[in-house]
Amino acid sequence: MRDRRDTLKNPQQELRIFRVRSLLAALLIVALTGLLMGRLVYLQVVQHEVYSTRSEKNRVRVEPLPPTRGLIQDRNGVLLAENRPTYNLTLIRERVEDLDGTLDRLEALLELSVEEADAFRLRSRQRQRPFQPALLMSDLDEAQIARLAVNRHLLPGIEVEAQLLRYYPDANITAHALGYVGRINADELKTLDLGRYAGTHFIGKTGVERFYEDLLHGQAGLRKVETNARGRVLRELGRTDPVPGHDLTLTLDMPLQTLAYELLDGRRGSIVAIAPGTGEILAMVSAPGFDSNQFVTGIDFAAYRALQEDLDLPLFNRAIRGQYPPGSTIKPFLAMAGLAEGVITPERAINDPGFYQLPNDSRRYRNWLRWGHGRVDMERSIAVSNNTYYYSLAHDLGIDRIHDQMSAFGFGQRVGHDVFGESAALMPSRDWKRGRFGQPWYPGETLSVGIGQGYWQVTPLQLATATAVLANRGEWVKPRLASRIGEEVVALDLPDTPPFLEIDNDYWWDKIFSGMEKVMTGHEGTARRTGVGLEYRMGGKSGTAQVFSLGQDQRYNAEELAERLRDHALFMAFAPLEDPQIAVSVIVENAGGGSTHAAHLARAMTDAWLLEEEQVDVEELREALENDTGTVAGN
Hints:
By secondary structure, the protein is of the alpha+beta class. The protein folds into 2 domains: 61-250, Penicillin-binding protein 2a (Domain 2), CATH 3.90.1310; 254-304 and 317-627, DD-peptidase/beta-lactamase superfamily (Beta-lactamase). It contains 22 helices and 21 strands.
């Protein structure tokens, strides 16, 4: 039997065990306390600057303040481009933990289509500076704003911000002249001053908006704000105000611009009007136009595809990029070239049998009037638009002198001062043809150039500019769209203005002008029906640009051709002759002879500008065009 004392507690042993365990626990507590204190010392002392900075960044946020874009108005103060308040959806990627999940929620809330969702995701990944907002969507409606507000707690890093958005009140009429702004893309981000464009989502893409981007945009500011743990702004700590962009006053006259657009009546074409004495572009229209407001917020794929696939090319700026054979509109310029080079005199005359032949060549280059005009001097050659006279003149001048003399009027050059995207078109020469085709220049090609056909191509702006130089008797004033930048007036004497024509003979200019006046009012004038009832002296010249070439013995019959194969109608004019106030060029595609359709439009433009008290009746003009089959076929 075991000793009873063995089963009883051993106080001494238990006391020893307790003391050992207490000591171990105390050592563990001391070690953990030391570790904790060491960590606190490390964080509070050693890493004080680091965590102080991080804390400050969490509490204080610097936000960019985008500048207000400058307004654009016409010469009379009519707003052409303004800023209206709107709400944009932005994303700060650094504040979003689950980007894909957040975007999924947004797409569901905003009820986006598949194409819109794809564009949405692309914008969300567009490269930005750290903590700079990326624009996801512009011009939110009230329902979208409400849904986003209700679900804000599920969308960290997503903000709805109020901002001014570009708006064009007369978008279709001014789209090509003004251009438009659009979202900044990835390629543009690589070249922009990101500090200046902080908080800015839009940039000028085309036209005046693009050319004067630096002045219209302004300079971004910033503000320092205190936020809570949820990122909500508590108070503003400091601010540097943005510098607004400069307002821009254009030379355009909105009533004249609107009239030009209405005169074209939806037909493909262009009208450009310039004040010869100042170079101010009074109207510059390309038709058909398009709604440039669609491009500000981002045009949807279906609408953009429709514009691209439209056969009338509404996105194409015909005024500065359309290239057309000038036809007979260049005859006054060629006549002046002949005078300047001593090849002709105003009195020199030819006998026109209805055609011209090169020496030792059986081919006949025909006049538009097949039986000819008989005796033709320089003045009559302009009035009746005689081709034979200019075949002969072109042959005597040669392509080299034609090229040099026509270049002096601005043909084959970019003529505008602040016209973004302008084409130089083409003034052909021997060197150009050899470089382009590897072929020599042939005499017959010189004859084609002599009546504004062949390789020669002009833009409506070029033709209007050359007409203004002609009206100024050889003095250049470079065309421009801006008259004031802020309060500063744009100087007339621009540094890149071409030299004046060295033709100091008033008699020559008078004879050229007399021939152009007889186009409008002479009994043989090609546009004499248009000149009926003129209250001022006007000089003009019709032209026809062939869409395709006819054979030697073929005759042109518009009724047998598809509409898009018919000749283009051109007309250039200035008035009044004694003190030119307006120079106009008109091109209407596939409208036939310039002496009918285009001439009436040019007359309407000069009437509107010079007879300010009268209103041009566009409907009456349309009826006149329908009833007027013209007096001249092909000129």
